[in-house]
Write a structure and sequence with these properties.
The protein is of the alpha/beta class. It has helices spanning 11-31, 51-58, 70-76, 112-122, 141-151, 159-172, 175-184, 204-212, 218-222, 226-240; strands at 41-45, 62-67, 83-85, 98-104, 123-134, 187-196, 250-258. Helix content is 42%, strand content 20%. The two termini are 32 Å apart. 46% of the residues are buried.
Length: 263
């Protein structure tokens, strides 16, 4: 559902800024695997700049990464693992190709049921599917403070992002509904656990850089004049500063095993 190309020009800034939040969550996701992935072939879908792929490599896995964004694919091509340009719903791999599939913050961008079905289809019986999404039941004070401040400078939520919030988030952001969907598509031993990770964000500047690297904000910010952009960032930093102490972004970690004995 994300507008095609929304991430194409964001790879460098995404890794530098958003990576401070996504990398710790990627490591938590791999630690949740009930299957030892060391030496196993793992597919990372919607890989972005490779935070989850890197975490899988740290656990000893052999990784293939996919992403639909040309910019992210180009970035991933220099990371040292195989990369395939592919939509999550049209993965070019045969059934049971992988021992596991990972999806870091992909299910909050696309319909969860068909996407999980696509992951299940390429994982062998007894293999694992691991995914993270944002927990919608816990409003994030950092995101909220920054968005409100940017709104005072004219930022408006793009239609495509509003559609995600309205149509996808009610499932992807609800751990119970997400767990039920995982069961429905054939995963077993499913857990959908609320998780708070310690981000590597230490100051208001880093927090605002993380938020403004997002594709629903970055193009708008880039379109401002230099002075107006600097003032919008400065005021967002002032607004977010009181909310950083003890900040733990609320995520959901979904874990499921592909049924070794399908009906």
């Amino acid at each position: 559902m994300v507008v095609a190309g929304a991430y194409d020009d964001l790879a460098t800034e995404w890794e530098r800024a958003a990576g401070l939040v996504y990398q710790p969550l990627a490591r938590a996701l791999l630690l949740a695997s009930p299957v030892d992935l060391s030496g196993q072939l793992v597919l990372d879908v919607g890989s972005g700049t490779g935070a989850v792929a890197q975490a899988a490599l740290m656990r000893g896995a052999r990784v293939v990464a996919t992403d639909r964004s040309a910019g992210m694919v180009a970035h991933l091509g220099g990371c040292g693992w195989p990369v395939v340009a592919s939509d999550a719903l049209a993965l070019p791999f045969g059934p049971g190709t992988f021992a596991g599939a990972t999806a870091g913050f992909l299910l909050n961008h696309v319909p969860p049921a068909p996407t999980l079905t696509a992951l299940v289809n390429v994982v062998r019986a007894g293999g694992v599917v691991l995914a993270t999404t944002w927990d919608a039941s816990r409003p994030d004070p950092v995101k909220r403070a920054i968005d409100r401040s940017l709104g005072m400078h004219g930022w408006l939520m793009p239609d495509w992002y509003a559609a995600l919030k309205a149509e996808v988030e009610p499932v992807s952001g609800d751990h119970r509904r997400l767990r039920n969907v995982a069961h429905e598509v054939g995963l077993t031993h499913v857990t959908a656990t609320r998780h708070r990770a310690q981000p590597w964000v230490r100051d208001p500047h880093a927090a605002v850089a993380y938020r403004t690297a997002m594709p629903h904000i970055a193009p708008w910010l880039a379109g401002l004049g230099r002075i107006e952009r600097a003032e919008a960032i400065r005021q967002a930093e002032v607004a977010v500063a009181p909310h950083l102490r003890g900040w733990r972004p609320a995520a959901i970690i979904l874990v499921g095993t592909v049924d070794p004995h399908p009906k």
